[in-house]
């Protein structure tokens, strides 16, 4: 379980690196998606570890919010171009 949490932490760091070294807004959006997916994975791991379904519900809400935010940002970028 510890090695999996470490792998998730590395993924979050990769997302932060992607956002900080991005050359365009689309690259920053991809980094933000990586970080949100990492958060979802961490919440699912926490739900499994603690055997509590509430963390799965929180992960589901976060996944839905991430999808809505991504669609909204893509629409904003399309209107800008």
Quick summary:
The chain has 81 residues and is mostly helical. 89% of the residues lie in helices and 0% in strands. The longest helix is centred in the last third of the chain and has 27 residues, at 54-80.
Task: Characterize the structure shown.
This protein has 81 residues and is mainly alpha-helical. The chain is built from 3 helices and no strands. Helix 2 runs antiparallel to helix 3. The longest helix is centred in the C-terminal third of the chain and has 27 residues. The mean pLDDT is 90.
The shape is flat
The overall pLDDT average reads: 90
Number of strands: 0
Largest sheet: none
Task: Walk me through the topology.
Layout: H1 2-20, H2 25-50, H3 54-80
Helix pairs in contact: 1-2, 2-3
What brief labels describe this structure?
single chain; 81 residues; mainly alpha; 3 helices
């Amino acid at each position: 379980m510890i090695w999996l949490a470490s792998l998730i932490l590395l993924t979050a760091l990769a997302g932060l690196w992607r956002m900080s070294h991005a050359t365009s807004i689309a690259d920053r959006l991809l980094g933000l998606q990586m970080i949100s997916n990492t958060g979802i994975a961490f919440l699912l791991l926490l739900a499994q570890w603690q055997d509590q379904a509430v963390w799965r519900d929180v992960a589901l809400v976060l996944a839905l919010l991430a999808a809505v935010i991504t669609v909204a940002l893509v629409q904003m970028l399309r209107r800008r171009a």
